[in-house]
Amino acid sequence: MNTPKHAVIVFLGGLMLSTMIHAETKTKSSTADPLVLWQDQTAKKTLMTFVRDVTDPESKKYVTPEDRVAVFDNDGTLWTEQPLYTQLLFTLNRVKELAPKHPEWKTEQPFKAILEHDEKTLKSMKEGDIAKLVAVTHAGMTEEQFEKDVDEFFKNQKHPQKKMNYTDMVYQPMVELIRYLQKNDFKVFIVTGGGVEFVRAFSEPVYGVPKENVIGSNLQYEYKSDGKTPELLRKAELVPPVDDKIGKPVHIQREIGRRPILAFGNSDGDFEMLKFTTESKGPRLGLILHHDDSQREYAYDKESRVGHLEEALDAAKREGWIVVSMKKDFKTVY
Amino acid sequence: MNTPKHAVIVFLGGLMLSTMIHAETKTKSSTADPLVLWQDQTAKKTLMTFVRDVTDPESKKYVTPEDRVAVFDNDGTLWTEQPLYTQLLFTLNRVKELAPKHPEWKTEQPFKAILEHDEKTLKSMKEGDIAKLVAVTHAGMTEEQFEKDVDEFFKNQKHPQKKMNYTDMVYQPMVELIRYLQKNDFKVFIVTGGGVEFVRAFSEPVYGVPKENVIGSNLQYEYKSDGKTPELLRKAELVPPVDDKIGKPVHIQREIGRRPILAFGNSDGDFEMLKFTTESKGPRLGLILHHDDSQREYAYDKESRVGHLEEALDAAKREGWIVVSMKKDFKTVY
Fold it and tell me: Which is the most buried residue in A170, B72, B154, B230, by most CB within 10 A?
């Protein structure tokens, strides 16, 4: 099977429960501002007008609740993806945890490079190297065991630069937006290039998005029924396509079966999802979160390998997509 | 790719909208019997006790709404699958409709056999023949076009033996049960061996199950964005595994991400889904619809190729699964 390097890296980009502090925004009266964490500017106004239009049965732009599907990318759209996708940091950490049981890794790449913090070798990893990492950190265990591994990571590890819990590095204005859409009978889905189970491990307590509304890249499973409880064993094999770029519309059709009316992304990996959502009849809204806030988070776009944003940013004006400035539109970030 | 004949046949087993007459059961007061179409026997009592237990916060068997996932097979569990899966009848009909544009089919198998009603040749179709049928009837068009083809079939064709609309051949006690579970905050999913888009074409008006809650066998898509509106072209290639037998738990984990607490099937294709659901901790319920009603529907099990029921029926007693008799438990069928 074809597993392009980019694809696997994206697959490794992906948070977790433990703290539920952020998820609960108290219900407000209908006259209260539903987006208090957003500055009163174009992005907020456009979002509120759109929601008013599609929920107003008297409006020409009315959309029935069945069809109110909104899709959000995860890495860089709902939480921080710098300096590396969290799922990739999980992978590197997992190799270190497993190393005592694998003395052979001291001389075997890419494990040796990880254990020795040899960044030069890590940056030149080939497809086969990445496949080896996926095989030992994401496969060969039951689904339940993998979820425990992810839980442990979130409980015990901090972000390498911000020194925060990963689950606290979620953008609160985005969580507020998800809640606002849900209250207006939108069905909100997360469509991530990362592994679906990695994001499902924290989507409910942190984002308020149920597991079944998380769509992502999939590993193939092996069904095992020799013990008491039938289990699914994770295999080191991707189910094509990876849920990134053209894979996003494919996964959306496969798992939702409707064209969304709102899409929110932050990188070129979301380009086709934005096009698929907005280039069709009826009211449609596309948004791109632009990371321009080096003080509160990170500033990057065309020069960044992680969360590379170029094609989609260039297309935004032509396509009528709203470019949301983290610096100017978010009152708060985390 | 491996495409066993059985798998493709199952893939071709799969209804449709137009009439919404059945879907609406009027809301009743909470004291009203929620399962009036079921005889007061073991199956009904077990279902009602189970629902009471898992929804009662005081009960030891209480299950939070997030985890109240119920899965239903489609062919033979929610609607008639005899004498052939409806999706297979759609396929044969589609070949006849397309034949005027394909004079070469007069001499090419398996098309020739279909056009000449040559049942002997049809029964000996090889994997390659079935792949040819899928290619011309299910692939090579956009998703929208395929849905129109399915709509047309349901509007214009009748069941070959009962002479009824296919959408009227849905088991009303099962629709009532779905509604009962939904009112008790169950998330009801259809898990079909048939093509997911075939069932999504009618799941909302007929069953009251939203498209995104239909899981089924998937064809691979090609993303096309050269025209005004980006489209998904259906390819003659199955995404493994077919959603039947061990494929059912795999698809459930992939698309829902939780182990269901209730599973309802009718054939050996549902065996692993029933095991995966019931052989685990906590309150669990497995049910098998037994077709023993030759007067009102059909009577078949171990001898039938379509909806073959043997392994799962033999296991029912050992596993504690409820065998629902269509004859004795259903007050009405359609």
Answer: B72
Cβ–Cβ < 8 Å for B15, B202: yes
pTM: 0.91
Question: What is the rounded distance in angstroms from the CA atom of residue B182 to the CA atom of residue B69?
Answer: 10
Q: Does B204 touch chain A (CB under 8 A)?
A: yes
User: Sign (positive/negative) of CA torsion A75, A78, A82, A88?
Assistant: negative
Take residue A100 and report the two structure tokens written for it. Answer: 């005592």
- CA nearest to A92, candidates A16, A157, A19: A157
Q: What is the pLDDT of residues B252-298, one digit of tens each?
A: 999 999 999 999 999 999 999 999 999 999 999 999 999 999 999 99
Tell me what pLDDT residue A155 has. 96
Amino acid at B78: L
| Domain architecture of chain A: domains with CATH | 1-17+36-334 (3.40.50.1000)
Cβ-defined contact of B223 to A246 (cutoff 8 Å)? yes
Give CA–CA dist A215/B104, Å, rounded.
Answer: 43
On whether any CB of chain B is under 8 Å from the CB of A227, the answer is no
User: What mean pLDDT do residues A135-160 have?
Assistant: 95
Contact A212 B256 (CB under 8 A): yes
3-state secondary structure of A173: helix
Question: Which pLDDT value is given to residue A131?
Answer: 85
Of A58, A74, A57, nearest in space to A217 by CA: A74
pLDDT(A23) > 90: no
B166, B86 in Cβ contact below 8 A?
yes
CB contact under 8 A, A229 and B254: no
Place of tokens 């030069």: A120
User: Shortest Cα distance from A240 to chain B (angstroms)?
Assistant: 8
Averaged pLDDT score across all residues of chain B: 91
Confidence of residue B328 (pLDDT cuts 50, 70, 90): very high
Using an 8 Å Cβ cutoff, are A260 and A293 in contact?
no
d(CA A325, CA A293): 8
- Please report, as a single letter, which amino acid is at residue B2: N
User: Which of B144, B191, B213, B223 should be substituted to probe chain A, the one whose Cβ sees the most A Cβ atoms within 10 Å?
Assistant: B223
DSSP assignment of A275-287 equals HHHHSSSS--EEE
